[in-house]
Amino acid sequence: MPEKTPLESWIAQKIGLRNGELTREEIADYQLRKLRETLRWARSHSPFYKRRLSTVSEGEPASFAAFESIPFTDTADLQQHGVQFLCVPQGDIDRVVTLESSGTCGAPKRVFFTAADQELTVDFFCVGMSQLVKSGQSVLIALPFARPGSVGDLLATAVRRLGVRPVLCGPVTDSVRTIEIMKREQVECVVGLPVEILSLVRTSERDVPSRFLNNVLLCSDHVSDSIVHAIRAKWGCEVFEHYGMTEMGLGGGVDCETHAGYHLREADLYLEIIDPESGAPLPAGETGEIVVTTLTRQGMPFIRYRTGDLSRWLPDSCPCGTVLLRLDRVRGRKQYRASGPHRGITIAILDEALFALPEVRDFSAYVDGVRPSKLIITVYGSGKRGNLQEKTREALDRVPEIYLAQKSGELQLFVNAAERVASTRTGKRGIGERVA
Predict the structure, then answer these.
(1) CATH number (domain holding residue 371)
(2) Which domain holds residue 26?
(3) pLDDT at res. 221
(4) What pLDDT does residue 364 have?
(5) What is the Cα gyration radius of the chain?
(6) What is the pTM of this model?
(7) Residues 338-350: tens digit of each pLDDT
(8) Does residue 270 contact residue 35 with C-beta atoms inside 8 Å?
(9) Do residue 322 and residue 340 come from a single domain?
(10) Residue 229: in which H helix or E strand, if any?
């Protein structure tokens, strides 16, 4: 029997359960109570929410069904009214994260955190990492860490509480140098972005650094099966996955040792899956857009915030035996499936096709708006440019969505190749759009 996720006992403690086992009923009672508190706090302290929630009666929501009638918020709201989301004076803000728009234009998003909000993240990181590393071990943190309150800095604080030594190297810009650090420090765990860890895997020798390494945690971006398989095959270690975003407080959920979906920090977050077009709630098993409400954030709460990420609730219980829900791996972004001949071509589909090629370390993808649309792929990897282009095109031609769009004459595929790996990005990867 696999070990139950440590998030369950942590959540039981956070919601005040002193005796007995955690149940879905207790989680639901707690979340509904916290939803009322969050709405009351936001409406009383935030200029934005005072307007947005003006029609919500005191004491609402009386039920989760009633909560579904509350208006959504989205990226445009955050871009246009960011400071007005605040529920505390700006002097109480300890950290501001600026996120550039993922499109070709648009104002950046700014997300504000109090010290208490950041402590919630550290607490989650601590319990999540407890299943990957133990006291006396070391972990390589391949994430930004220089600024206080950055994700790498908070993760380092969390693992120190476990008695674990953080090795802070920052984002992977030099794979050879990072491999040397892993060997020198004999790290038992590595945390980083999927594409950057893949670059390390395809740089390292077969037995180095796998003789030290036990676990890898992939975070901050979409995770593909092809990357997970490549890491396990080369390094022979377990691969865990984390799902989160800055608006969630950097941490959202993490899988357990069964690797059968993300278990969420349900004491801090309430998630919904909705139909991206109608906004109606979807049952377990159906893919839709993730909507998040923060339950414990004081500085900048988010209420029914549309993330754009596409996933689903997994309907069955986790093999680890927990009562916590399971969120499936994110399968793409809503805006890249909206319309046009490239409908259904997501970054997740491209990841699976291209990262299965041993020569590929990274790629970029763009779609323009001209008829026929053009899908422009640039791959970065090893080997001769012509061979890399040919293998890439062959892999993409086997993708049904791309094959059918090309056959109908609605899509043209262009493939470029380069030996240099793309520069390190900020934010999640996606398919860009170039409109003529």
Answers:
(1) 3.30.300.20
(2) 7-118+256-331
(3) 80
(4) 85
(5) 22
(6) 0.89
(7) 445 455 778 888 9
(8) yes
(9) no
(10) helix 225-235
